[in-house]
Amino acid sequence: MVVAWCIMPVYAAVCDGPPNGQSFILFSGGCDRSPQVLPCTQGFIIPALPSPGGDFPTQYYLDFGDGSSPYYGTVDGVTHTYTAPGQFTLKYMAGTQCDLWRQGTYVLNIPAPENYTSVNPGCAPSRPMAGFISTPVSGFAPYTVRFTSTSSDTDAYAWRFGDGGTSPAENPSHTYMTPGTYSVSLEARDSCTGMVNRADRLNYITVTTTAGTLSLSSTPPDATVFIDNVVKGITPVTLTDTATGSHTLLLTREGYDDYTRTFIIEPSTPATISVTLIRSVTEPTTRPSFSYGSIALTSVPAGATVTIDGRQSGAAPAVIPDVLPGNHDVSLSLQGYDDWNQMVSVGSGQTAAINAILVKTAVSTGSLAITSDPPGAEIYIDDSFKGVSPATISGLSAGTHTISVKLQDYTDNSTSIIVTAGQTGRFPVVLQKIHTLSAIDILLAAGVVLMIVVIAVVVMFRKDTKKE
C-alpha cells in the first residue's frame, strides 16, 4: 500500500540540479524491533528539499533491499511487508521534473523471531532483456520525449537520457532543454536474481532550437537568401527551421543592391517578408560564403526508402551529406505504408533533423486459396481466368465475387463468395465426374437391344404358329 504524505507543487523548471537534500524516516510497523514477529509491515518517508534554483522534487524511488520490486511514484511515503529477517540495504532517491536525482542508502536490520525457522524461497531463473522505443525521436527544444520499455523478465529500470538526466521509471517522459544529439541507455534488472541487461541507442534523440515559419519572396525572384550570414535558399522560399527570436536578413541578386533588415520570429505566428529589389549602380559588396548542409532522417518503422528531390538516397535511418542550402522535397516510402512527404529547409553547414512516423496503408483487398479434387482445374473469378488449382489468388477487392472451377470430364462448379479485406478465404471444391459411353459400351448396348428384339420376334412367331 502506498501512503501519500507530501506532494510538492510543480513550477516552471530551472533544471539547475537535483534536490538540495533528502531525509529517510521510519514510521509505524517497527520491523527493526526485538523480539520480532514476521511478516511485518514497515512504513517509510523519503522527503526531499527543492534544488538550489527552486525545482521541487516530483518523483521518488525506494528499493526495499529484499529482492522485491522497487517503489517508484510521485509521493514520498510508502509501506512494505517483509517476510524474513536479515540486514537489508535500502536505496532511496528523489528527483525533480528535470530528472535530476539525489540518492542515499539506509541499512534496516530485522531480527529473527524466537524459534524462527528460515525459509529460502529462492528465485526463479530469469534473464532480463533490455529494450525500448520512443516516438518521435527529434523535435524542437524544450522537447519532451516519452520512452516505453519493451524489456522482458525485469522489474527495475535505470535510464540515462544523455543530457545528465536519469530515471528509475518503467516508461518515463523526459524533457530535453538544450539542442543537441543525445544517446540513451536503459539497464533492465531482475530484483530477485540481481541479473542486469543493458540496451543502448547512440545518437538516438535529436533536439533543435525552437523554430517558426518564414516565407520570403522578392521582385524579381531568384535572390539568394542569407539569414544571420547563413545561406537558406533562393526566393521564393518558405523556411520551417528559423529559430524564434531576432535575426538579420540579407537578399542578394546579380545586378541589384543588397537588401538587409532585421526581423523577429514568433513560435506560433508565421512570418512573411516580400522585398522589391533595386537595380544596382555600384559594385556589389563582399557577401557571405556558404557550405553544404545535411539531412538526418529516421522513420518509424525503420527501413523506408528515402528520396530527396526525386533521387533515391538510401534507407532510413540515414544521414544525407552534401545537401545544397535551401528547400528540398523529401519523400519516404515503405511497402504496406502510405508514402510520407515533406518540404525541408536546409541551412549552410547545418543538419536538418526529420523523424517520419509512417501510417499503415488501409487494406482494401483480400485473397482466396482455391483447391480442387482432383487438382488441375481452371479457376475463373468474375469470368476472368486466374490460374489452375491449387492456387491463392490475391489482390481481390473486398465484396462478392463469382468463382467458377472447370475441369475436362467434370461438371463445372460455380458459386458466389465474399472476400474480406486483409484476409485469405479458403474455397475447397470437389468436382463431379461426367460419365460418357465409349464405342464398346455402345456396341454392347446395341447387341443387347438386338438380342431383346430377336427374342421378342421369336416369341411372337411361336405364338402365331400355335394359333394355326
Keyword list:
five-stranded mixed beta sheet; 468 residues; flat; Immunoglobulin-like; 1 helix; four-stranded antiparallel beta sheet; disordered N terminus; 36 strands; mainly beta
What would you note in describing this structure?
The chain has 468 residues and is mainly beta. It folds into five domains: 25-110, Immunoglobulin-like (Sandwich), CATH 2.60.40; 132-208, Sandwich (Immunoglobulin-like), CATH 2.60.40.10; 211-276, Carboxypeptidase-like, regulatory domain (Immunoglobulin-like), CATH 2.60.40.1120; 293-357, Immunoglobulin-like (Sandwich), CATH 2.60.40.1120; 365-430, Immunoglobulin-like, CATH 2.60.40.1120. The protein is 6% helix and 49% strand. It has one helix and 36 strands. It has one helix at 439-467; strands at 25-27, 40-45, 57-63, 71-73, 77-82, 86-96, 101-110, 132-134, 138-140, 143-149, 156-160, 166-167, 173-176, 180-189, 196-208, 211-219, 224-227, 230-234, 237-243, 245-252, 259-265, 271-276, 293-300, 305-308, 311-315, 318-323, 326-333, 340-346, 351-357, 365-373, 378-381, 384-388, 391-397, 399-406, 413-419, 424-430. Strand 11 (156-160) and strand 12 form a beta hairpin. The longest helix has 29 residues, at 439-467. It starts with 24 loop residues before the first strand and ends with a helix.
